[in-house]
Design brief:
This protein is α/β, with parallel strands linked by helices and 232 residues long. Helix content is 32%, strand content 28%. A six-stranded mixed beta sheet has the order 6-7-8-3-9-10. A four-stranded antiparallel beta sheet has the order 2-1-4-5, with helices on one face. α3 runs parallel beside α5 and α5 runs parallel beside α6. The chain is globular, with a radius of gyration of 17 Å. The N and C termini lie far apart (36 Å).
Length: 232
């Protein structure tokens, strides 16, 4: 049975988070005792050099992986006690993801890609809701285009539409502007934060983009698997 916290105050919490893997020369510590908390509707940027553990931390917070030690609570549930299927059920419709590489399904149109999380969460109005959110990101005329027919910026807009379509409580984004030029990246940032304000979604972002980090409420600096800074 999952343990509970208060999701309104902190939809994401971690205590003493540690992640260790076996390397060729013995155990390698990626995260070493990370504590953090993300409030409802809050935007938090996770910064750090390559190899500092940013993406690993994001995956643990989202329940895509389990820590070697420590605890994670996501949306009122303690993830440590849940198996992979239970974590997936928890995320369905309540947690969104945006990745650097877009992760769109090539055989599906923009509309079908956006409908996917709605259908998985059992939404009855999936086509109408997907059309609405694609229009919201400026792709109302590109509904039936496939990923290969869209620019990088348009693909990322589809990915954001797909993530926001179920109106999730929490959004995890891993370098959402990393594959885009600066001008397109700036548009994506505006879009991401505009949708966040309208839907009240908490954002947890891994980024190297200083413009994106500045838009967040807090910036966490990861160094050698430890949070060295928490800048308001």
């Amino acid at each position: 049975m999952a343990e509970h916290s208060n999701p309104k105050a902190s939809p994401v919490r971690a205590r003493g988070l540690r992640r260790q893997v076996q390397g060729p020369e013995g155990p390698l510590t990626i995260l070493d005792g990370v504590d953090l908390e993300v409030g409802a509707g809050e935007a938090v940027a996770i910064l750090g050099a390559s190899g500092s553990g940013k993406s690993t931390l994001l995956g643990l917070l989202a329940g895509l992986d389990l820590p070697s030690a420590g605890e994670v609570w996501l949306l009122d549930h303690r993830l440590n006690g849940m198996d992979e299927d239970a974590r997936a059920r928890l995320r369905a419709g309540r947690v969104g993801f945006v990745f650097q590489s877009f992760q769109l399904l090539p055989g599906m149109s923009a509309l079908e890609n956006t409908m996917l999380p709605l259908e998985l969460s059992g939404a009855r109005d999936a086509p109408a809701r997907a059309r609405e959110v694609l229009a919201e990101v400026g792709l109302g005329r590109r509904l039936h285009h496939y990923p290969q027919q869209l620019s990088g910026g348009e693909q990322q807009r589809v990915a954001i539409a797909r993530a926001f379509a179920p109106e999730p409580d929490v959004m995890f984004a891993d370098e959402p502007t990393g594959n885009l030029d600066s001008r397109t990246g700036a548009r994506i940032i505006d879009l991401l934060f505009g949708l966040r304000e309208r839907h009240g979604t908490a954002l947890v972002l891994v980024t190297h983009d200083p413009a994106l980090a500045r838009r967040c409420d807090r910036r966490l600096q990861l160094e050698a698997g430890v949070i060295r800074e928490d800048t308001p």
